[in-house]
Amino acid sequence: MKKKIVLADDHAIVRKGVRAVLEKLGKDLEVVAEISNGKELVEYAQKHDADVYVVDISMPVLNGIEATERLVKLNPQSKVVMLSMYDDRVSVEKSLKAGAKGFIVKVSTADEIVDAIEEVAAGRFYLCSKVSKYIVQGFLGKTSARKRDATGLTPKEKEVLQLIAEGYSSKQIAKSFNLSLNTIHVHRNNIMKKLGIHKQAELVRYAIKEGIAQL
Question: Is the pTM of this model over 0.90?
Answer without folding.
Answer: no
